[in-house]
C-alpha cells in the first residue's frame, strides 16, 4: 500500500508542471498563479479558504482586484478596514463577511509591514518547511490546516524550493479523512492528529505529498456512499476493499 500510494503521489508531483487550478474562471486563475506579480493574492486566498467552498474562497482576491481596479500592495494597504467590510458585505464574498474582511485587511498590513510588501519573502531563499508553515501561522485567522495547505501547494505545485519538506503535513478535509480511514482501517472517529501522524508514518520526509492523491480519490472515486473501488488505483491494497469481499 505504501508503495502504491507513494508512487502515485510522486508521479503526480513530478508531472505537475502546469498552472495550478484554483478556480474555473481563467482570468482569476491566471491572477492567482502569478506569484511574481501578485504573491499576496495567493496568501490572501489561502486565508479566505475556510468555512466556504474552495472555489468561492479563492475567487475573493480577484473580486477585490476587479472592484478596486488595482491589486498593488501599497494601494491595498491604504484602504481602511471599513472599505473591505463594505466590499465583502455588498458582494457577499463569504458567509462571515465582517470577519473575513478583517483577516484580509490585517494580512495586507502584515505583508506590508513585516515583508516590505513582498509576500514571496515568506517562502524565498530556500527556507525550511517549518519556517514557511510558521510564517503562515502568523496571519490572524490562519490555523495549522490552512498553513500546511499553503506550504504544500507552494512545494508540490509551484515547486518552490525548501530545505526540507518534513513539516508539511496533510490537511485532513473530508475527502482525505475518508480515503485514509478506509485505506488504513483507521477508526471512524479518528482524530485529525491520527490522520496526520499516519501520513507522517507513511512518508516521514514529506507527509503532505500524499494529500492531493487522497483528496482527488476521495472526491472522484471514494465517495461517502457510492464507493467505486473498481476505479481506484489503491484498491488492491485497500483494507476496506479487501475485507468487504
How does this structure look, described?
The protein has 245 residues and is mainly alpha-helical. It folds into two domains: 2-13 and 167-244, Orthogonal Bundle (Endonuclease Iii, domain 2), CATH 1.10.1670.10; 18-122, no CATH class. Helices cover 58% and strands 0% of the residues. It is built from 13 helices and no strands. Helix 2 (26-33) crosses helix 4 (54-68), helix 6 crosses helix 7 and helix 8 crosses helix 9. The longest helix is centred in the middle third of the chain and has 18 residues, at 97-114. The two termini are 18 Å apart. The mean pLDDT is 95.
| Measured distance between first and last alpha carbons | 18 Å
Helix percentage range: 55-70%
The averaged pLDDT comes out at: 95
Q: Strand fraction band? A: under 5%
Shape annotation: globular
Structural class: mainly alpha
Order of helices and strands: HHHHHHHHHHHHH
**What is the subunit arrangement here?**
single chain
Tally of extended strands?
A: 0
Number of individual domains: 2
Rg, rounded, reads 19 Å
Instruction: Give a short account of the largest sheet.
Output: none
- Pick out the low-confidence regions: none
How many helical elements?
A: 13
Amino acid at each position: 500500500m505504501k508503495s502504491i500510494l507513494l508512487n502515485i503521489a510522486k508521479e503526480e508531483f513530478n508531472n505537475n508542471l502546469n498552472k495550478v487550478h484554483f478556480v474555473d474562471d481563467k482570468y482569476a486563475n491566471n491572477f492567482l498563479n502569478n506569484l511574481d506579480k501578485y504573491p499576496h493574492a495567493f496568501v490572501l486566498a489561502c486565508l479566505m479558504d475556510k468555512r466556504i467552498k474552495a472555489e468561492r474562497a479563492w475567487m475573493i482576491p480577484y473580486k477585490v482586484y476587479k472592484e478596486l481596479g488595482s491589486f498593488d500592495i501599497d494601494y491595498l494597504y491604504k484602504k481602511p478596514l471599513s472599505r473591505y467590510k463594505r466590499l465583502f458585505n455588498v458582494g457577499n464574498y463569504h458567509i462571515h463577511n465582517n470577519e473575513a474582511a478583517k483577516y484580509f485587511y490585517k494580512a495586507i498590513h502584515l505583508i506590508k509591514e513585516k515583508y516590505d510588501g513582498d509576500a514571496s519573502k515568506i517562502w524565498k531563499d530556500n527556507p525550511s518547511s517549518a519556517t514557511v508553515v510558521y510564517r503562515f501561522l502568523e496571519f490572524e485567522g490562519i490555523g495549522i490546516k490552512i498553513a500546511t495547505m499553503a506550504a504544500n501547494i507552494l512545494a508540490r505545485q509551484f515547486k518552490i524550493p525548501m530545505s526540507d519538506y518534513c513539516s508539511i503535513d496533510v490537511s485532513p478535509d473530508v475527502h482525505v479523512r475518508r480515503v485514509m480511514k478506509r485505506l488504513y482501517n483507521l477508526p471512524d472517529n479518528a482524530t485529525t492528529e491520527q490522520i496526520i501522524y499516519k501520513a507522517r508514518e507513511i512518508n516521514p520526509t514529506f507527509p503532505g505529498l500524499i494529500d492531493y492523491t487522497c483528496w482527488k480519490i476521495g472526491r472522484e472515486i471514494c465517495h461517502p456512499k457510492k464507493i467505486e473501488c473498481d476505479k481506484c488505483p489503491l484498491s488492491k491494497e485497500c483494507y476496506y476493499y479487501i475485507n468487504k469481499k
